[in-house]
Amino acid sequence: MATILVTGGAGYIGSHTRYFLQKQGHSVIVVDNLSRGHREMVPDGILREIDTRDTARLTDLMKRERVDAVIHFAAYIAVGESTKVPELYFANNVSGSLGLFDAMLAAGVNKLVFSSTAAAYGIPQRVPIAETEPITPINPYGESKVMVEKILEWLDRYREFRSVCLRYFNACGAEPEAGLGELHDPETHLIPLILKAVMTGKPVTLFGDDYPTDDGTCIRDYIHVSDLAEAHIFAVEDLLNGGTSDVFNVGTASGHSVKEVVTAVERVTGKKVPFTIGPRREGDPPSLVADSQKLQSKLGWKPKRADLDRIVSDAWEFALRNMNQNEQLAYGRRQKADT
Ligand code: UFG
């Protein structure tokens, strides 16, 4: 078993990956500056509050703890925010990654799994999207991830630094039993926003119903965060066993429209989803679905929780557990009124 350092391990995907790494028997240290993560998502004793730009402290930590490999999640992820303050995204996502890589090189750690994104493809020409699709990001968030992928290519070539880049599609779902789930602030993602609409009775806006899809709403590849977390375990274990650098999509290869997600939430919760149709959101391609054959055939990973109702049900359970007191009271009153 190995010692793995997880940056951003107090965030959504990072906390789930930490959970599965420990279940697998690995020893884990979490590095997070808690600017967007949640302290309560990290078990006692393994959190180090360090910014990834703090190369000196990271080097010291990695040497002291004899770290074998790093899984790097720490980054900002809000596409809309990245178009307003691009510099923040390049500073945190690119400089932060460089600070970490410098520390790894200084500490003699040369294995990394990197959290990349389907946003690297921008508006793809072909769907399902294979890794060979042109890399043409259309926002600073996607560009910041692509820049790090590029840096990693050069480090592989000239510094014997091995990395696996995982390009995520739409992460969703939760591990409610473990107290883990999606808690972004502000929340911009579809499933938690629909669940919030069910809880509060305030309608969620669906961004456009005039896309060239069967029901007019956008299609996305929703992947359970635990399946995504397990992809990181396959990737890091492959590197630890001498695997080479590579890039993989992580998705289920099947797409669901926004309206299908609404219907799934209604099935799972037994409640009507209040929604309105709004204008299209800028930069939303009609359909993004992964071809994740490469990950399945090279690393043997398979999504085990791809059923949309399962995903929504886990997210719903987590949302119910995390509802704050006021929302719980209001939700209780509405339930009473409904019956
Ligand atoms: N949507 C709505 N209403 C909302 C929020 C979202 O209708 O209030 C729609 C969007 O228009 C889109 C779908 O729901 O069609 C999914 O939107 P999300 O914001 O949940 O996710 P995205 O597909 O926009 O983004 C995700 C990740 C990004 C990543 C991108 C890569 O969250 O980090 O996939 O394709 F960049």
CATH topology of the largest domain: Rossmann fold
Ions, cofactors, ligands: which are bound?
Answer: uridine-5'-diphosphate-4-deoxy-4-fluoro-alpha-D-galactose
In sequence order, what are the helices and strands, one letter per element?
EHEEHEHHEHEEHEEEHEEHEEHHH
Mean pLDDT figure: 96
CATH architecture of the largest domain: 3-Layer(aba) Sandwich
Please give the CATH class of the largest domain. Alpha Beta
Description of the structure:
With 339 residues, the chain is an alpha/beta fold. It has 11 helices and 14 strands. The chain has helices at residues 12-23, 55-64, 79-84, 86-107, 140-159, 190-200, 225-240, 258-269, 293-299, 308-322, 325-338; strands spanning 3-7, 27-31, 47-48, 69-72, 111-117, 162-168, 170-172, 204-207, 219-220, 222-224, 246-250, 256-257, 275-278, 287-288. The strands form 4 sheets. The protein has a 7-stranded parallel β-sheet, with helices on both faces. Helix 1 links the parallel strand 1 (3-7) and strand 2 (27-31). Helix 1 (12-23) crosses helix 7 and helix 6 (190-200) packs across helix 10. The N and C termini lie far apart (53 Å). The mean pLDDT is 96.
